[in-house]
Write the structure tokens for this entry.
Amino acid sequence: MTWSIQERKAMTERYIKGEAAPEERALYEERLLSDDSLLGLYMEALSRQDGLPDLPDPALFADRVMNHEKIKPYPRRAAAYASDRPKRWYEKAIVHYAIAASVTLLFLFTGAFERLQSVSPEQGAPLSRSPSYSDQLIEKTSGWIDSLLPK
């Protein structure tokens, strides 16, 4: 069933004013979800309204909405871990930092960062003669540690 423009406008006005029969409202809502032009007409009619319609009993309306069978509050979720038990060893931040530092040192000492340098395809040798990234990082780290130690 297709509606003409005049029927659409009349139905939209009746729907907004609450004058439509329940069957008409259900049909209009179904069409509203699938027809973009009807949705545009509905939004235009809503923008012409002087405000929201008055509810006869706002408290009763709120109670009916909150007690509706399809509206259920979110269940409370249990915490990730109970506050009365201590964290496990792998949940502590220091373990994560130690693992990250170990992996970084492993990459430094095995020369994994040296592979990041540009390599000439013909020779297979680095293009520049500057120290590798691993050597530079180790040099800076050892210099920083030396500055911390008392002389």
About this structure: The chain has a mean pLDDT of 79.
